[in-house]
Amino acid sequence: MCGIVGGIDVNGGKLKGAEFIEAIRIQHERGNGLGGGFAAYGIYPDFEKYYALHIACNNEQSAKLADDFIRSHLYVKIAEDMPTKDVRDITWHPLLRRYFTFPGPSNEDLKLSNLGPSTVHNGAEIIEYYMKKFVFDFNRSIPGAFIMSCGRNMGVFKGVGYPEEIGEFFLIDKMEAAAWMVHSRFPTNTQSWWGGAHPFSLLEWSVVHNGEITSYGVNRNYLEMFGYKCTLRTDTEVISYLFDLFVRELKMPLEDTCAILSPPLWKEIEEEQDKERRRKLLHLRQYYPQALLNGPFAILVSNGREMIAMHDHLKLRPLVGAKRGDQYYFSSEECSFEILCPDRELTWMLEGGKPYIVRMKEAVGD
Amino acid sequence: MIKSNQASEKSEKLRQEKSARLDMSRNWKRPVKYMPVFDYDRCSRCGLCATACTWGEIRLVPERIENGKPITIPVANRSSCGACHYCERQCPEEAITIVETPFVSSHRYWRGDQKNLWRQVDPNNPGHVLLISTGADSELISYFDNLLFDACQVTNPPIDPLREPIELRTYLGRRDFTGHSTPPLLEVQTPILFSAMSFGSINLNVQIAEARAAQILGTLWNTGEGGLHKALDQYSDYTIVQVASGRFGVNPRFFKNCSAVEIKIGQGAKPGIGGHLPGEKVTFEISRTRMIPQGSDALSPAPHHDIYSIEDLRQLIYAIKETTGYEKPVSVKVSAVHNIAPIVSGIARAGADIIAIDGYRGGTGAAPRRIRQSMGIPIELAISAADKRLREEQIRHQVSLIAAGGIRNSADVLRAICLGADAVYIGTAVLVALGCGLCQRCYASKCSYGITTNRPDLVGRLDVDLATKALVGLVRAWSDEIKELMGGMGINTIGSLVGNRDRLRGVHLTTEELEVLGVKQAGQ
């Protein structure tokens, strides 16, 4: 059991971090104090061109290694300690560092170090590919350190504790963001550590997940064929990598990606009236069976511009949605809406297996 | 004194007379392995058993005269029982029991081979290669038996297949992500396919039952290398035709009436050697289907004589694709051998849409015993190694893998899938479903069940309708069991298990074995 909460303003309006702390505090029962975290989008407008690395290091030695590694691969605009506040129940925390970076001291270096796949065509893609490779290499090769998030104008704040404590620790109550995703953890398949808390993030994509992915072995095998390295010892990271693979790398529409991750039953595909859509759904399910997510899950996925809410066919994990004007909220429990949007105009239960996609500027239901 | 001498001479003479009766050829007489034991209190003296036995083990001997009619009782010849259990099953009075007669040898090391060696030097037929049928029965470890499934507890709810849909539908074939057109994928409603068994090795009744069952079940059956009999044309949507080194029955009709073509390079029971159907088994129908003269030996050579390396295989694959207008997937079947991983990778790159790997336990209609027992590697290791290699080369998602050889039950099916197979072939299980007692003598063409024989007096022993029902029942039962297993694992579509070794744990295996299987030790 875990608790998840998310919210997005389709006009890019700011949502208060303090409210999200309260919204997850009310779901206290869903966690056990072994993990909590926040993903916030639109929080670094002054440095929006730079990749914001949130780094956690076990000790000074790993912090030194991490610093050397970052400086040897990336141009560092700013390096600083993350602002935190002492919280009574968080008795230990890793050294938390924040870097605003950009690939390569110069473009010349970038060309030399890039060995991108054939899908990489333009400069922006080369940069993204380089950053992704950097993150995998970092997580694999720096003992005692890991990257919490590495996207532009966004950040992940997570750790071992109840999410309301983690929120207080990272001063979330002082922040405002266009999109939030929050997670309260009750770990069941891996030991708790700061890297194992949610959200999981790769470049701009972040995921919060309540559930257990029984197809993890297949999903991981599949992702490894495309160069992804699953290093965080938990099933959730595959979801963020799958979104990264299909949406960012293979440039598939979000709807198709969702149809791959949580396809309709074969019978439902056969009963689909729209011939073109039937053909497409059949194709996606035939061609990408290894990317299908099996097991009980409720997930929120976002890249800051879009937010996808989805749970499994059998609705083995809860997920409800709420709408207030241009703001959309999702939560494991309706009680959170009483804090986030008591004056909401709509509350609904999401359909099993069907993604609900919210886009900035326009909201499209599926 | 004299008297004593006379007595001594007499006994010496007697001794010599008796000595002369010792039969030197009996030095090589094979000890009895199995025999029927008759309960004469139950026996009604009907004599059905002697007719049922096609192996000449039961003879009827006169017992008495009753109402002027001679009454006979069955007696075991102690010569040729192979424990097929047909007489035991046919006896209306339940008066027969097949027993195993222990072979007493003081030499433990030689115990098993003594008997086989005697057979090879039998003066009536000295110096012959030992033949055997079905798959290897050696006591080597079965990896399947040492792999256990995961189940959901607390953190993750198991799924009840009676209440929630669990999907077994599988698509086999090549997925091309570059926009090139590929043959359509083969759709099967369950990942269990009937393995290649040729017309000749089995009879037409069995093939018709397989084809009908495949149609009812929505799966596929495989013709084997003996061509496609005309009576089976109507099942083309459920038929895989096989092209082997003998090229028997390969003609336009054959390519037209199938949904996929399989090139057989090798077979698990006899890697590296071809097939041999003795001339006496080549009846009129078989000769027509195979396109060879009646009564001539049907020998398929060890290699395809147009395939001496991988590039030649590529040419054959594309020759078949050209022939079939790129409308039918091409499968390549190979035996599981030491180097299976790179071989499979080469086959995938040579253009095969499906690769079938047949393991050490794979069956056969006839193979030299030494080859069957000692060549090739177990399918569990081979499929795992092949799956791993294809993933490392980033092409696993483009082709389909079929595991074959030694699949005995639904759990074996699922284990093979978790180790990397998209689907499995079952062969011996098909025969057992038809009653086969696994006496391992298919090559003799005397099958008492009427399965692996084409003798006109025996083929009628298998009823096509009953056989079809049995095969449908087999696959349905296994499919339901697979759904139960999947439900316990909390997985509702079979695709989420292909190569999902996380859902397996090993017991009693060495670190190296676990590593090749890609499976963790139980408790980890």
Keywords:
heterodimer; A: 366 residues; alpha+beta; Alpha-Beta Plaits; seven-stranded antiparallel β-sheet; six-stranded antiparallel β-sheet; 27% strand; globular; disordered C terminus; B: 524 residues; alpha/beta; TIM Barrel; eight-stranded parallel β-sheet; three-stranded mixed β-sheet; 16 helices; 21 strands; 16% strand
From the helix content, strand content and strand pairing of chain A, which structural class follows?
alpha+beta
Residues in helix, % of chain B: 25-40%
Poorly predicted sequence stretches spanning 5 or more consecutive residues of chain A: 111-120, 362-366
Low-confidence stretches of chain B: none
Structural class designation of chain B: alpha/beta
Characterization of the model:
- The complex is a heterodimer of chains A (366) and B (524).
- Chain A is 31% helix and 27% strand.
- Chain A has 366 residues and is an alpha+beta fold.
- Chain A has a domain at 44-152: ACT domain (Alpha-Beta Plaits, 2-Layer Sandwich), CATH 3.30.70.260.
- The longest helix of chain A is centred in the middle third of the chain and has 19 residues, at 123-141.
- The model of chain A is unreliable at 111-120 and 362-366 (pLDDT under 50).
- Chain B is an alpha/beta fold.
- Chain B has two domains: 24-128, 2-Layer Sandwich (Alpha-Beta Plaits); 143-187 and 237-437 and 467-521, Alpha-Beta Barrel (TIM Barrel), CATH 3.20.20.
- In chain B, the strands form seven sheets. An eight-stranded parallel β-sheet of chain B has the order 9-19-18-16-15-12-11-10. Chain B has a three-stranded mixed β-sheet with strand order 6-20-21, with helices on one face. A two-stranded antiparallel ribbon of chain B has the order 1-4.
- Chain B is globular.
- Chain B starts with a helix and ends with a strand.
- The mean pLDDT of chain B is 94.
- The A-B interface holds A 188-189, 211-212, 214-218, 221-222, 224-226, 265-267, 286-290, 292, 294-296, 313-314, 316 and B 152, 154-157, 159, 164-165, 167, 169, 171, 175, 177, 185, 391, 394, 396-397, 489-493, 495-503.
